[in-house]
């Protein structure tokens, strides 16, 4: 098979060798991660610019407050006219109050915009990761991407761009203000601000870039280790591999701690340099003002104002440091969503869940490794809208591979898969699940309520839809018997459910999603024969007419009503036809049918 592009691949697992530093360089031709984030933020740009202006107003109010208060204190000693003092007192009060109001509204506007955007980004990341579920990402790493990498997008806007642009604007305003009093003093201030706001951030970024780039992937790997060590504890102990796995995880944890200590130490050094720059700038401004014969009170105002202005501009150092740490996460989110790169689907238009869709496999060959035997060997298949087919065959025949090709998670080496006469690869990965999807191998059940697990299939589905899907999957009686009903929590990976209940829940979610091309990979696995027949019949009956179904099954019972049954063996189609034809023809299907029927008769005879 041609490899599925995997921008997420990181270092080895807990049982593997000690980790190598992993970074994700932005690939050529792709927009930079920052530009990609700005593209994502475009619908919320107005609110973000508003937040930036409010942040500028906040910082400027603080600076003006310091300068006015200094003028008030220094000129009070000279007993100026009372009305001048009164104006200054009112200004100090007004600035103090407005600073709080500006800060509050800035936080409100900035967080409102960013949280809206983040919801959108997280949903897209989740959809893309779900679509790529067979590409082998470790679950802890996926969790880390969903949580910390998406937070990097939030932090870039809230902690870097908004405060950074506010600091730069306030710097310009401060120099303009100083120039009104004395040009040489303004020149000295400008030099100090450039050192604090440009040179120091560049230095901080250069010094911390390498360590910071290693921190995010390392955190992802450590999260994956933690999950593997917890979930796989029994297996690790059984194979005597616990010590080795712990050693690898500890090695990673120590490396992470070392990197974070180094980053913190560099941060403190840069902070100290910032304080030094503030003091030196104020000193230079005072000297320049005195040399230019500026009156004493205004020299004081310039000195305190310069200290405050440098302090504000030093926010750029924090922003730059933050930015360095965020870059790997941002690059991974951008690469994952591949935002900005116009996808062919953009030209095609959005896929709708209802179709109609005609799906066609033409001589499709899949090979997982070069030189290995093909998992699918020149398989052709027609799945026009409304048709229902089953793919059966022995273990390893290529059934799940066929489903993976259909959902776009595995690319064929040769041949073509088309959806409405367009190659499947022409559709965006996150868009395809709207048209093609269902219950795929090893469906994941989340540590959440029954309702939340179901709503993942179709957000916003009403109670009637939940009830219908759950009834079709044969889980409704169980849900109704639970004290918490739909709000019953199913445990980590559905651990508080039986295997059969977990399978029914996953099936109900697939039926609720009701994509126009429904793939059901072993939907009745783990159910006893009678329950399996009943669930398969209700599930097929619940699928809307006009939607097509591709059922993958080991069991041959319940397939009589399907339009076609395709028998795979060793990746090749060895038989195809309707159930009645196949049981009448000597071959794998008839042999297997007779074997299964006899085994199930025996099972039923033994069942009380
Ligand atoms: N991710 C993978 N990497 C390498 N080889 C794979 C991968 N997935 C499947 N294969 C190989 O491809 C072949 C077909 O596997 P597939 O899972 O499609 O079979 P299947 O018919 O679904 O089997 P089962 O009924 O046991 O689930 C097998 O030989 C299998 O070893």
From TrEMBL:
Q: Where is the ABC transporter domain?
A: 359-595
Where does it primarily localize? membrane
What residue spans carry the Low complexity bias annotation?
7-29
Q: The organism sits in which domain of life?
A: Bacteria
Q: What is this protein called?
A: Thiol reductant ABC exporter subunit CydC
| Annotated transmembrane regions | 48-73, 85-102, 156-181, 187-207, 263-291, 297-320
Q: Which UniProt keywords apply?
A: ATP-binding, Membrane, Nucleotide-binding, Transmembrane, Transmembrane helix
Instruction: Supply the PROSITE patterns for this chain.
Output: ABC_TM1F, ABC_TRANSPORTER_1, ABC_TRANSPORTER_2
ABC transmembrane type-1 domain: residues covered? 49-326
Q: Where in the cell is it found?
A: Cell membrane
What kind of membrane protein is this, topologically?
Multi-pass membrane protein
Q: Which stretches does the entry tag as region Disordered?
A: 1-32
State the organism named in the record: Micromonospora vulcania
The UniProt entry's coiled-coil ranges are none
Asked if the record carries the keyword Transmembrane helix, the reply is yes
Which InterPro entries does the record match to this protein?
AAA+_ATPase, ABC1_TM_dom, ABC1_TM_sf, ABC_CydC/D, ABC_transporter-like_ATP-bd, ABC_transporter-like_CS, P-loop_NTPase, Type_1_exporter
């Amino acid at each position: 098979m041609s490899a599925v592009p995997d921008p997420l691949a990181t270092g080895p697992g807990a049982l593997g060798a000690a980790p190598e530093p992993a970074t994700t360089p932005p690939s050529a031709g792709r927009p930079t991660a920052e530009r990609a984030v700005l593209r994502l933020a475009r619908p919320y740009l107005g609110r973000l610019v508003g937040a930036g202006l409010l942040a500028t107003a906040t910082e400027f109010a603080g600076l003006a407050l310091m300068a006015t208060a200094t003028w008030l204190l220094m000129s009070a000693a000279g007993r100026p006219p009372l009305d001048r003092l009164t104006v200054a007192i009112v200004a100090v009060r007004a600035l103090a109050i407005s600073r709080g109001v500006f800060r509050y509204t800035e936080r409100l506007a900035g967080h409102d915009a960013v949280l809206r955007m983040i919801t959108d980004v997280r949903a897209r990341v989740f959809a893309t990761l779900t679509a790529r579920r067979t590409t082998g990402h470790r679950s802890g790493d996926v969790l880390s991407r969903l949580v910390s990498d998406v937070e990097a997008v939030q932090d870039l806007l809230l902690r870097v761009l908004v405060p950074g642009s506010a600091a730069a604007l306030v710097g310009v305003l401060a120099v303009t203000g100083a120039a009104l009093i004395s040009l040489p003093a303004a020149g000295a201030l400008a030099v100090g601000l450039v050192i604090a706001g440009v040179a120091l951030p560049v230095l901080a970024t250069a010094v911390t870039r390498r360590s910071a780039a290693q921190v995010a992937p390392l955190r992802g790997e450590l999260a994956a280790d933690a999950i593997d060590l917890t979930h796989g504890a029994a297996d690790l102990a059984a194979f005597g591999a616990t010590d080795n796995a712990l050693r690898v995880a500890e090695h990673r944890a120590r490396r992470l701690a070392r990197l974070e200590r180094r980053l913190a130490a560099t941060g403190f050094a840069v902070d100290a340099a910032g304080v030094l720059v503030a003091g030196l700038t104020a000193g230079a401004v005072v000297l320049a003002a005195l040399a230019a014969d500026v009156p004493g009170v205004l020299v004081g105002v310039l000195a305190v104002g310069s200290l405050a202005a440098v302090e504000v501009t030093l926010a750029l150092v924090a922003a730059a440091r933050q930015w360095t740490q965020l870059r790997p996460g941002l690059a991974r989110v951008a690469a994952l969503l591949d935002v900005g790169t116009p996808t062919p689907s953009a030209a095609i238009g959005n896929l709708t869940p209802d179709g109609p869709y005609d799906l066609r496999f033409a001589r499709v060959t899949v090979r997982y490794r070069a030189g290995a035997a093909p998992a699918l060997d020149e398989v052709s298949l027609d799945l026009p809208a409304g048709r229902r087919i089953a793919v059966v065959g022995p273990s390893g025949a290529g059934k799940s591979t066929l489903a993976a090709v259909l959902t776009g998670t595995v690319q064929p080496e040769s041949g073509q898969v088309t959806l409405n006469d367009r190659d499947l690869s022409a559709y965006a990965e996150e868009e395809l699940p709207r048209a093609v999807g269902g219950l795929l191998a090893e469906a994941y059940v989340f540590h959440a309520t029954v309702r939340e697990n179901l709503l993942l299939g179709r957000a916003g589905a009403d109670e009637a839809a939940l009830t219908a899907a759950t009834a079709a999957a044969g889980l409704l009686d169980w849900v109704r018997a639970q004290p918490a009903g739909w709000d019953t929590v199913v445990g980590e990976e559905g651990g508080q459910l039986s295997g059969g209940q977990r399978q029914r829940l996953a099936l109900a979610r697939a039926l609720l999603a009701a994509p126009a091309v429904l793939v059901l990979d072993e939907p009745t696995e783990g159910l006893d024969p009678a329950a399996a027949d009943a669930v398969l019949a209700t599930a097929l009956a619940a699928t809307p007419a006009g939607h097509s179904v591709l059922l993958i099954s080991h069991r041959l019972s319940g397939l009589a009503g399907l339009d076609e049954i395709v028998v795979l063996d060793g990746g090749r189609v060895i038989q195809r036809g309707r159930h009645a034809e196949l049981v009448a023809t000597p071959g794998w299907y008839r042999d297997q049918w007779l074997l299964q029927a006899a085994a199930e008769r025996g099972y039923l005879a033994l069942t009380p």
